[in-house]
Amino acid sequence: MKIFGTYKIRLKILSSVHIGCGEVYEPVNFIVKDGKLVEFDPLEFIEKLSGQDRGKLSQLCMEDAWMTVLKFISQKAENITGREVAICQGLKKHYEKVLNGDQKEATRFIIEKTAHLADRRPYIPGSSIKGALRTGYLSKLAEEKNYRNFKGRAKILEEKLLEGKFETDPFRFVKVSDFLPVQDVRTKILYATNWKKDGKRARGPYQILEIIEKGSVFKGTITIQKCEKQMKIKEPIQDLEKLLYASKSFYEKIAENEKFTSTEKQGFLIRIGRHSGAEAVTIKGNRKIRIMGPKDRRTGKRRFEFKDTATTLWFASEVQKPPQKPLEDFLFGWAVFETIMQEK
Question: Which of 41, 73, 42 is nearest to 57 (CA)?
Fold first, then answer.
């Protein structure tokens, strides 16, 4: 492998990946039927309504009868077409509860979209890949330089490890493209549930996320640019292989600790997206993970403490409240760089 240049890379998803984009599936723009969520154009829906039905919808909206509006839309949109997304087992019943006026379920019925292109296909932002590689590389430097239990802010630790600030940060010369889908990449809507590592359910509500399914493949590029001597970069990244091996070592240890045992992780393991876990986004040996402690008897407020490991993990689930802790294969965020080829 040559030192500098651009490398074509194939990324395979090993477990559910969700990368937020700030968008949600609006309940007034979709219905659930035949085991799928169908997202439609609201203007097209209104155009197909009769004059009488338009008047009724307008009246309901003025009355601010939100759940009645949803029920009306679900009844009138039965024959409308749109973009279809697979859903988990529990979502249909959840949707029906909302339509039937369950206020508690309605307030939590928020479905977050994963990052997508203009044509609605999912993609992996280059910033997600670069951030994961950076964390692995910094952890390797911390180990080599014997930095442990650093007391200051994480940003200061990074500057010490890289021996410089923005203008001398070697990652300025690592360029990562967005990773685009290869062929048909599927998404699915499911629940994210939080569990303690001892197997007990953790505090806090579930989330509803659109995820990229296991087995999906993406392609992108990573470019290692040469740093000139006058730039005074003390810790230059001179080849992709060193960067990938640092990342591989870092994430394989986390996978081992979390008992993630996918048989498809040959290559350079990486972790990306929401619910990747606190260990995957912090520098090994210098973690200060905020843990919720017991309530203070005097104030009634919960105390917080900082530890070097998290006490909970997030799992993908087909239902809101799984009866037992899901298998480790349902952890979020695992992927692997399968093939790497330098451009000529």
Answer: 73
Show me where the domains of the chain are located: 5-19+120-342, 23-110
Handedness of CA 74, 77, 80, 83 (dihedral sign): negative
Strands (E) located in 49-159: 83-87, 111-114
Would you give the DSSP letter of residue 225?
P
Q: Which residue has the higher pLDDT, 285 or 230?
A: 285
Q: Which DSSP helix (H) or strand (E) runs through 221?
A: strand 217-224
User: What are the phi and psi torsion angles at 335 (to 5°)?
Assistant: -150, 170
pLDDT tens by residue, 238-282:
788 889 999 999 999 999 999 998 766 578 999 999 999 888 998
Q: From 170, 189, 167, select the one nearest 122 (Cα to Cα).
A: 189
The structure tokens listed for 74 are 């679900």
Look at residues 111, 307, 288, 317 and name the one whose alpha carbon lies nearest to residue 194: 317
Q: What angle do CA 247, 162, 220 make, to 5 degrees?
A: 40
Tokens of 209: 């996320």
